[in-house]
Amino acid sequence: MAAPMTIGYLNGEFADLTSLRIPVLDRGFLFGDAVYEVIPVYEGRPFRSEFHYQRLQRSLAQIHMEPVLDREQWGSLLRELIARNGSGSMAVYMQISRGAENTRNHLIPKGLTPTVFAMTAALKSRSPEVLERGLQVITRDDTRWGRCDIKSTSLLANILLYSEAHEQHAQECLLHRDGQLTEGSSSSVFVVKKGRVYAPPYGPEILPGTTRDLVAELCEANGTPVREGPIDMTELAEADEIWIASATRELLPVTRVDGHPVGDGHPGPLWRAIDARFQDYKQESAND
Ligand code: PLP
Q1: Can you give the pLDDT at residue 2?
Q2: If DSSP codes are grouped into helix, strand and coil, which group holds residue 35?
Q3: What is the CATH number of domain 7-122?
Q4: d(CA 254, CA 263)
Q5: What topology is assigned to 128-287 in CATH?
Q6: Residue 1 clears pLDDT 90, i.e. is over it
Q7: Which of 171, 185, 239, 287 could form a disulfide with 135 if both were Cys (CB 3.0 to 4.6 A apart)?
Q8: Which pLDDT tens digit goes with each residue over 13-60?
């Protein structure tokens, strides 16, 4: 396990991560009554942070919480946390829970003070082996709840599915509901067939992915726009390429699904083209 970076943030205070404490009655701890964001940071600069901010606001609204940080506060919290952790490349994790009351109560109480927590973690660079060989994935029934569009900290199903993939020597678990592809346990998914890029439709079943949205922009610029629509699991066997995307993994090719090769079993040409655009975009946003 990567060593955590040292300085975290809790409710206005920056301190050594291991010294920060929350009350046991915090609803994030008791119920997973909390939402979160993960923002990649390249050379000290948060990447597409505005989109993470907007999604956080949306998640809060969906669980009937008021906005907790305005843009200014969000920006300065990020800046200070990044600076205190060395201003390099890292991932910022930020979590907002509804807060603590004096008992355990299923009913959502009014007027609690939310708990705001943030920390950083190492951002692993993508291994040459993965870029060369692609990822192996397994497929499983999507056992999560019905509001996966909320970036909730209640991730029990996700972590069980992800861990099962690792037990099977795979690096992600692609999920399906009623025979249709939804997303990865911690990533968005794309399927490429005959030069066309497809992605499952946004809705309550999947998280609106910040990386997916960027990849959609890059695909558009490449003249291969992403088509949103239901993807039947049977279509995976006929796919030329499959990709997963997330803020910390960027865009990665999947080359084996349940042990079967995707296309010719190697990362495909369209992935190479879009990933090259992704890397250029990153470079440009570091320089602007
Ligand atoms: N879907 C799920 C379930 C995720 O957990 C994630 C990221 O963690 C994503 C999609 C991708 O979202 P993003 O690109 O904003 O990281």
Answers
A1: 53
A2: strand
A3: 3.30.470.10
A4: 10
A5: D-amino Acid Aminotransferase; Chain A, domain 2 (3.20.10)
A6: no
A7: 171
A8: 999 999 999 999 999 999 999 999 999 999 999 999 999 999 999 999
- Domain segments of the chain as ranges: 7-122, 128-287
Residue 252 CA to residue 131 CA, distance in Å, equals 7
Q: Which residue type sits at 64?
A: H
Does 245 contact ligand 1 (Cβ within 6 A)?
yes
82 pocket-lining for ligand 1 (C-beta < 6 Å): no
Per-residue model confidence (pLDDT) at position 227: 98
Task: Tell me: pLDDT of 5 over 90.
Answer: no
188 CA closest ligand 1 atom index: 10
Give Cβ neighbours of residue 128 (< 8 Å, ≥ 6 apart). Answer: none
Instruction: Point out the residues that are catalytic.
Output: 151
Considering the chain, what percentage of its residues have pLDDT values greater than 70? Answer: 98
d(CA 97, CA 120): 18
**Amino acid, single-letter form, for residue 280:** D
Structural element, H or E, at residue 188: strand 188-193
* Cβ burial 40-53 (10 Å sphere, 16+ → b, else e): bbeeebbbbbebbb
Cβ-based neighbours of 25, under 8 Å, separated by 6 or more: 100, 101, 102, 103, 104
Chain segment 206-258, per-residue pLDDT in tens: 999 999 999 999 999 999 999 999 999 999 999 999 999 999 999 999 999 99
